[in-house]
Design a protein that fits this description.
Blueprint lengths: L1 H13 L3 H14 L5 H14 L7 H14 L7 H18 L4 H12 L3 H4 L14 H16 L5 H10 L17 H15 L7 H18 L18 H18 L3 H22 L25 H18 L10 H4 L2 E4 L6 E6 L2 E6 L10 E7 L33 E5 L2 E4 L5 E8 L3 E8 L2 E10 L2 E7 L4 E10 L6 E4 L3 E6 L2 E7 L4 E9 L2 E9 L2 E8 L4
Antiparallel strand pairs: 1-2, 2-3, 3-4, 5-6, 5-11, 7-8, 8-9, 9-10, 10-17, 11-16, 12-13, 13-14, 14-17, 15-16
Helix pairs in contact: 1-3, 1-13, 1-14, 2-4, 3-4, 3-5, 3-14, 4-6, 5-6, 5-8, 6-8, 8-9, 8-10, 10-11, 10-12, 12-13, 12-14
Length: about 550
């Protein structure tokens, strides 16, 4: 699998043409080092060169590395992220003998002079202050820096770990501010990595307990397509799935060291599934750093900080842990998400429920962060179908947190609706309150309260599709998303009083319902593109997805 990981890393680097890299270098020379995308380019070039790839980049690598190691001593430019990556790259080049010793020693001498309290920006200076996952990046960077430079482990590493291990829930999920799903995974990757790098300090056992608590749930939150859960900031970037790949490769190592080769094999299968998803996306013609086909510098679907130069190379950076720590002697078995047959929920901090059966995967959010998402059923994936075909994440209401083509008038998901005194109420809105009534291996049942009006919704999965049954007084139904535009391609869809159909990339999403009143809610945007939402008044609906020639 290392060759697959290197292929993906090289593909990510290829998104930066020579002119773009030269412009990036000129900007740093003019404005100084300001963020971690720049060092990541050098670090990943170094890993590729150590494997006999991309050797033509050697002069560029040296120029970037000179600038980075010089600036680490001068400015706080998100060095928490960069130092570890630079050190790992240089250590690999040194081990493989792929870089002149005098250059390695020059850069090592500079890195050895780093004072962590001056180099890093976001430092946890006491146990109680929660500054987010940056402090954990700083702990890992400092640990590998000290190891490579032959220096003693200092109080900085232990103090940052002491702070960070406090901010997890009962499932070992990391509670970054507002609990975004990506930033449960980032700390999990970092906790795993510091153990893989050899950390054996006072917090080792606590870190292992955090990882043990969360592993089973983490495996079950993986979509049947290999994707991470949606939700919160930094969702839908292509660097998300490499997080899973690296986590599960490192978990496989951890489990194998305990002699648990059965679960280690499951983790390796999950790691490969996410990597293959990433490969399928970024080797598919033109690509960018986010899961749509808008211009890579348009920011559509992205937060203001999520620009291409920083986040395209982050894909390779996140995958580098998998490259470093993959154990090829552990043979993959079957990923948990491919077996299916479960319904699981996170803690209330993360307010998610996942249902997986018969090749379908449903993800519900019952208390969404409306800067990014909406309440209700926000994801329906089918194994082998494009993630966007039905819906991969909700459409948020008007928000300044991410850039979309236009502002949505309200949050939208594949949600229930009802009428109350002539007003249409939506289960996607903030006022919708959800109660999980029951669940099993292939179903889940919710009660949705919309300003005092309740609708009971049952979701049942089988080989025939997703059957949704609604119970409630008066007019009730479901709001249905029809994919319309991915940033480049118009998507074929149609709807009538008895059903609706979407065709995309050789696959079909089909809704069938009893003849009903159907209203066009208009076109809404999310990070993946545009969806036309149709409001169907019905009590039963079937959703089927599959290859066009199969359904």
């Amino acid at each position: 699998m290392r060759e697959l990981y290197l292929d993906i890393m090289e593909r990510a680097l290829s998104a930066y043409d020579d002119e773009r890299i030269a412009d990036f270098i000129d900007r740093v020379k003019r404005d100084g080092l300001t963020e971690h995308g720049f060092p990541r380019i050098a670090a990943n070039i170094g890993i590729l060169m150590a494997n006999g790839r991309c050797e033509r980049y050697f002069p560029v690598f040296c120029e970037i590395m000179d600038l980075c190691t010089e600036y680490f001593l001068k400015v706080k430019a998100a060095n928490e992220f960069s130092v570890r990556e630079v050190v790992c790259s240089l250590a690999l080049l040194e081990k493989r003998g792929r870089c002149p010793k005098e250059l390695i020693e020059k850069w090592r001498e500079r890195i050895a002079k780093i004072n962590p309290w001056d180099c890093y920006l976001m430092i946890a200076r006491d146990l109680e202050t929660h500054i987010g996952n940056w402090a954990l990046f700083g702990a890992v960077s400092e640990y590998v820096r000290l190891r490579w430079c032959g220096l003693e482990i200092n109080d900085f590493v232990e103090s940052q770990l002491a702070n960070q291990i406090r901010f997890v829930d009962e499932n070992g999920m990391y509670m970054d501010p507002n609990c975004p799903m990506v930033y449960d995974l980032v700390p999990r990757m970092l906790f795993n990595s510091i153990l893989c790098f050899g950390y054996d300090g006072v917090h080792k056992r606590a870190i292992e307990e955090i990882l043990d608590k969360g592993l089973d749930l983490e495996l079950k939150m993986q979509s049947v397509n290999g994707e991470i859960a949606y939700g919160g900031r930094s969702s839908q970037f292509y660097h998300n799935e490499p997080l899973l790949t690296s986590i599960f490769e490192m978990e496989a190592c951890r489990l194998a060291e305990r002699g648990d080769f059965e679960r280690a094999s499951v983790c390796r299968a999950a790691a490969i599934k996410s990597a293959e998803y990433t490969r399928s996306c970024i080797f598919d013609g033109e690509f960018t750093h986010i899961k749509n086909y808008y211009d890579k510098d348009s920011f559509i679907g992205s937060e203001p900080y999520g620009y291409f130069d920083k986040y395209m190379i982050t894909l390779a950076s996140n995958l580098s842990f998998a490259y470093f720590f993959a154990r090829e002697d552990i043979k993959p078995s079957v990923a948990v998400c491919d077996k299916g047959g479960y319904c699981v929920s996170t803690s209330d901090f993360f307010h998610k429920t996942f249902l997986n059966s018969s090749g379908y995967f449903l993800e519900f959010d019952t208390e969404a962060d409306f800067h990014y998402d909406a309440n209700g059923l926000g994801r329906v994936h089918k194994n082998g179908c494009p993630s966007q075909l039905c819906l991969s994440l909700p459409c948020p209401p008007k928000t300044e947190s991410i850039r979309l083509e236009w502002d949505n008038p309200r949050g939208m998901s594949l949600a229930v609706w009802c009428e109350n005194d002539g007003e249409i109420l939506y289960g996607s809105e903030k006022y919708a309150k959800y109660t999980l009534l029951s669940s099993g291996d292939n179903f889940v049942e919710y009660l949705c309260d919309m300003k005092g009006v309740t609708v009971k919704a049952r979701y049942f999965l089988s080989e025939d599709g997703v059957d949704i049954t609604l119970e409630g007084e008066g007019r009730v139904g479901l709001v249905i998303p029809l994919f319309e535009f991915d940033g480049k391609n118009k998507v074929a869809h149609s709807f009538s009083t008895t059903g609706a159909t979407v065709e995309y990339k050789g696959c079909v999403c089909r809704y069938t319902y009893d003849e009903s009143v159907v209203g066009d809610e208009g076109v809404f945007c999310n990070r993946n593109g545009r969806y036309r939402f149709v409001r169907a008044e019905c009590r039963k609906i079937r959703l089927e997805m599959g290859r066009k020639d199969e359904i």
